[in-house]
Design goal:
The structure holds two protein chains of two kinds.
Chain A: E1 12-17, H1 24-29, E2 36-39, E3 49-53, E4 56-60, H2 62-65, E5 68-72
Antiparallel strand pairs in A: 1-2, 1-5, 2-3, 3-4
Chain B: E1 4-10, H1 17-25, E2 29-33, E3 40-47, E4 53-58, H2 70-79, E5 89-95, H3 99-111, E6 116-121, H4 126-129, E7 131-133, H5 135-142, E8 146-148, H6 157-163, H7 183-192, H8 198-209, H9 212-237, E9 238-240, H10 249-256, H11 261-302, H12 307-324, H13 327-343, H14 345-358, H15 367-372, H16 377-382, H17 390-399, H18 408-419, E10 424-425, E11 428-429, H19 430-456, E12 466-468, H20 477-510, H21 515-519, H22 521-529, H23 535-549, H24 551-563, H25 570-578, H26 585-593, H27 601-609, H28 622-634, H29 639-649, H30 653-677
Parallel strand pairs in B: 1-4, 1-5, 5-6, 6-8
Antiparallel strand pairs in B: 2-3, 3-4, 7-9, 10-11
The chains are: A alpha+beta, B alpha/beta.
The structure holds guanosine-5'-triphosphate (GTP) and magnesium ion.
Magnesium ion binds near residues 17, 18 and 58 of chain B.
Chain lengths: ~70, ~675
């Protein structure tokens, strides 16, 4: 699944980042395979996603989130 | 060791670089711009005993040596020795809570071979957040001296200061194994250019030799590799016990990010700020006004009459007053903005408003400048510094002057009272409706222009919004005061110069004129009225005649053919030119030109409402009045705005473009309105 489908209280792990579409800045911020992401607040429709990436709080757009593949953590 | 060397403060955004900078340098700092860009540059010095000094440079936040914004570009240009600022040594400032993400930049700078220390800031929160760090092991692992500090509690700063002179003794060997580097291709260059680090050679090599897609892949590989290294080191040394962490974040976020309440709270905060800026600034502004008119009169009284005295009293002193008068508004606005930033609330505002403003090519942060623009465009334009994306910042700067600032109000009020009937439409007063309409017109034009500009301006940086959501914090008074101080100082000394020059120039044009009419104005008027008027009335007539025959007056007449289609004559033309100093001057100029001889608005209004055109029509009839209001709503009739835009965009290009498009919109709209109504 992709990151825009993340649910509250269901942390995920980054599997693959489509770097053709994702700016290098995001990779350098730590969106790399293996990074843990959880959702901090439920997003509004088309609104920004407020997430925690390995302890780092940030908000990103859903367009970017669609380009980041993640998997649920068992 | 050199007697003087540069010490760069580097680090991710919001790690406390500027706070540390303030601690290290105190008031020994100067604020300017990096050449060619709108990024603020802060420099300060620390003087040590043995007679040498360190030049500390506070750099903007960057996540890595990679240019994805003007800020990051500056950082990477400096590090890669492409600027005049030599990267002699550095402190990489990081935040204990985000150590992992901060270390990416650290390992990159370290591998460039720059002597550096790692400064871990915000250590005051460690207990509260359940964080422990084995610093001495990490020092060994990173081959770097580490300082755990808190600028908030002033801990660790002295130790750091003591060690700064020894920074050149630090280990500059490569830290992260370079196996993401394609060795073969650069080995040749490396041999030729032996002095620099392998990583440095590689960086400049890939920049020159790769296409964009390849470059992206390489950078990706590098980041993954470096993070693997960082994780392995932090696993041994950093421990975060989330159970112990206690945080207000989610509770406060529930309130401030609520889709409805969040916005209502923000609008209320804004209204409060706004109200305070208006009412608090009034007192100091009145005092400044009084002081400068006193000084001006006093100068005229004590110095012998002559050209020099008048230049000093009417040109220079009044001009300086015109700069100083902005200080209260700037100081108050930045006090509030800085508090909002320091508390972490500003990021929430961006989060809330980003969606609605993005449609117009603006950022969530544009809301502050836009709304401040209703008080005055000067502080508003200065406050765009907080917008990270340069294109959004530029657009905000360009459209903010459309917002109805308080200097337009006197112009609107007098015109409305002359041409709009004081009658009611149901319960609505026509005059009130007109005023409201003018405010809305400003907002509308700002949004439309923003939309158009966002399509027209190209950006070399991708705009993918990423907002850091920092912890909520109690603001540090000292940081707030530093912001206020440095903003005010840079306004006075940079924009101030331009404002002063233009106002002296305008004064010269208004108080000089070619030919005998100007020179003998007094005689001519005396002869004309032949003592039929009393001294005061004669004086007003003389002033009016002088203005008519001054360079400004002549320009007004030259412009008349252009202004006629809008319903204006040369007298209104003169008032438009002089009001370039400040819009409200429009009213005063009309008073002079129609020899009103009073500063009372009602008298001025009465007198000018009778004025007729040569064809017998009332000069200020409905079409002309409305056309003028529309003109003032859209035209960039304000030299101070031009000065501040020049300062903020660091070039004359944008103020010229802005002046041209705003004046064109104003002219065309006023033309349409006049032709339609008459
Ligand atoms: N708790 C705590 N907060 C701090 C400390 N130092 C700075 N801050 C806060 O961190 C925030 C950012 O500080 P700045 O000094 O502006 O950070 P910066 O690195 O210059 O930020 P940019 O210039 O935007 O990159 C402010 O809200 C400071 O009050 C500290 O030691 N402890
Ligand atoms: Mg800073």
């Amino acid at each position: 699944m992709t990151l825009d489908n993340i649910k509250l209280n269901q942390p995920v792990k980054v599997r693959k980042v489509h770097i053709e579409y994702v700016p290098t800045k995001f990779v350098q911020l730590g969106f790399i395979p293996g990074a843990l992401i959880s959702l901090e607040r439920p997003p509004l429709k088309n609104g920004l996603l407020y997430i925690v990436l390995d302890g780092f709080y940030l908000a990103i757009t859903q367009e970017i989130a669609k380009k980041i593949e993640v998997e649920k953590i068992a | 060791m050199k007697k003087k060397f540069n010490l760069l403060l580097l680090g991710n955004p919001n790690t406390g670089k500027s706070s540390l900078f303030n601690k290290l340098t105190g008031l020994n700092q100067k604020v300017g711009n990096f050449p060619g860009v709108t990024v603020e540059k802060k420099e300060g010095s620390i003087n040590f005993k043995n007679n040498y000094s360190v030049n500390v440079i506070d750099l903007p936040g960057a996540y890595s040596i990679n240019s994805s914004s003007p800020e990051e570009e500056i950082v990477s240009d400096i590090l890669l020795e492409k600027t005049e600022i030599s990267p002699d040594s550095a402190l990489v400032v990081s935040d204990i809570e985000n150590l992992k993400h901060n270390l990416l930049l650290f390992t990159q700078v370290k591998d460039l071979g720059i002597p550096l220390y790692l400064v871990i800031n915000m250590c005051d929160v460690m207990g509260k957040k359940g964080i422990t760090l084995d610093t001495s092991t990490l020092e060994e692992e990173l081959k770097t001296k580490i300082f755990s500090i808190s600028t908030r509690n002033s801990t660790g700063i002295e130790e750091l200061l003591d060690e700064i002179p020894k920074i050149f003794d630090s280990d500059i060997s490569t830290l992260v194994e370079n196996n993401f580097i394609d060795l073969e291709s650069i080995l040749k260059i490396k041999i030729e250019n032996n002095s620099s680090s392998l990583y440095r050679t590689w960086l400049s090599h890939i920049k020159k030799n790769q296409n964009l897609d390849d470059l992206k892949k390489i950078k990706h590989k590098e980041a993954v590799h470096r993070y693997r290294f960082i994780n392995s080191k932090l696993n041994k040394t950093l421990n975060i016990d989330r159970e112990k962490a206690y945080d207000l974040r989610s509770k406060l976020d529930n309130i401030f990010l609520h889709p409805l309440w969040g916005k209502i709270i923000f609008i209320s905060i804004l209204a409060l700020i706004f109200q305070t800026i208006f009412s608090w600034s009034n007192y100091p502004m009145d005092v400044i006004d009084e002081i400068f008119s006193y000084l001006s009169n006093y100068t005229k009284k004590v110095l012998p009459e002559g050209v020099f005295t008048r230049l000093l009293a009417e040109g220079i002193i009044t001009g300086i007053g015109g700069v100083i008068i902005f200080i209260p508004q700037i100081a108050f606005l930045f006090m509030f903005i800085s508090v909002l930033e320091e508390t972490g609330y500003m990021s929430r505002v961006v989060f809330l408003f980003d969606k609605s403003l993005k449609k117009y090519g603006l950022s969530g942060k544009s809301i502050i400048p836009l709304i401040s623009g209703v008080a005055c465009a000067i502080p508003a334009v200065m406050s765009t510094r907080n917008i990270d994306d340069w294109k959004q910042r530029l657009i905000t700067i360009l459209v903010t002057p459309f917002m109805t600032c308080s200097a337009r109000l006197p112009v609107y009020l007098i015109l409305i009272s002359i041409v709009i009937p004081d009658k009611f439409f149901f319960i609505f007063n026509y005059q009130g409706l007109t005023l409201l309409g003018l405010y809305l017109l400003g907002v509308l034009m700002a949004l439309i222009s923003a939309y158009v500009l966002s399509k027209a301006i190209e950006s070399k940086f991708e705009n993918h919004i990423m907002i850091e959501m920092p912890n909520y914090k109690i603001p540090v008074l000292k940081n707030v005061l530093f912001t206020v101080y440095s903003k005010t100082k840079s306004f006075v000394f940079e924009a101030g110069k331009i404002i002063l020059s233009i106002s002296i120039f305008l004064w010269l044009l208004a108080s000089n004129g070619p030919g005998d009419n100007f020179k003998y104005a007094e005689q001519i008027i005396m002869d004309k009225y032949d003592n039929k008027k009393n001294i005061n009335e004669l004086d007003y007539e003389i002033q009016s005649y002088r203005l008519e025959n001054s360079y400004i007056g002549i320009t007004g007449k030259v412009l008349e053919p252009i202004l006629n289609p809008l319903g204006y004559d040369w007298k209104i033309g003169i008032a438009i030119i002089t009001s370039f100093a400040a819009r409200e001057v429009f009213v005063g100029t009309l008073a002079t030109i129609f020899s009103v001889g009073s500063e009372n608005v009602d008298t001025i209004k009465e007198k000018i409402s009778y004025q007729r055109k040569p064809n017998g029509e009332l000069l200020f009839n409905l079409p002309t009045g409305v056309s003028l209001m529309v003109f003032y709503a859209f035209a960039l009739q304000c030299m101070s705005t031009i000065a501040i835009v020049k300062k903020e965009t660091n070039s004359w290009k944008w103020p010229v473009i802005q002046f041209t498009f705003m004046t064109s919109i104003a002219y065309i709209s006023a033309l349409i309105v006049y032709q339609y109504l008459s």
